[in-house]
């Protein structure tokens, strides 16, 4: 069965949009994404949007690039937290999702996490040492 083109998706403007709310009360639209919080493995994006998961704006019915707005950077207990509303429709300014990216250093490792309705959830840990102690083998 052939999947319809993402550009031809039509949504009734009279339909109520299903929303979920982030911790800070920002509404995110689940009607605009193919899959909610897809598992992205260890791909943690500090900025940008996962357009393959974007089905189109449920308000204006267009599938276009998105605007990054309300970007903030704060540091708490040695952890850098970047949040923004990246997934704002370029045409009608409908908020699709809120993106959160964190970076911290724990012992000899850099830790990254990402959580976004559109971009997904992911985490990664990378050694800051020349030789990753997790990859070392015992010599006996």
UniProtKB/TrEMBL annotation:
The protein's name in its UniProt record: Protein Churchill
Zinc keyword on record: yes
Keywords for the protein's UniProt record, in alphabetical order: Activator, Developmental protein, Metal-binding, Transcription, Transcription regulation, Zinc
Annotated GO MF terms: zinc ion binding
Family listed: Belongs to the Churchill family.
Keyword Repeat: no
Gene Ontology biological process terms, A to Z: fibroblast growth factor receptor signaling pathway; positive regulation of DNA-templated transcription
């Amino acid at each position: 069965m052939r999947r319809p083109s993402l550009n031809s998706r039509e949504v009734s403007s009279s339909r109520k949009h299903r929303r979920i709310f982030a911790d800070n009360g920002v509404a995110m639209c689940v009607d605009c994404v193919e899959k909610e919080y897809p598992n992205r493995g260890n791909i943690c994006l500090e900025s940008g949007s996962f357009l393959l998961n974007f089905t189109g704006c449920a308000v204006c019915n267009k599938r276009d690039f998105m605007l990054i707005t309300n970007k903030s950077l704060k540091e708490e207990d040695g952890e850098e937290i970047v949040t923004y509303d990246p997934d704002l429709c370029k045409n009608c300014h409908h908020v699709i999702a809120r993106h959160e990216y964190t970076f911290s250093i724990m012992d000899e490792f850099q830790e990254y996490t990402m959580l976004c309705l559109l971009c997904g959830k992911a985490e990664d840990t990378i050694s800051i040492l020349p030789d990753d102690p997790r990859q070392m083998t015992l010599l006996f």
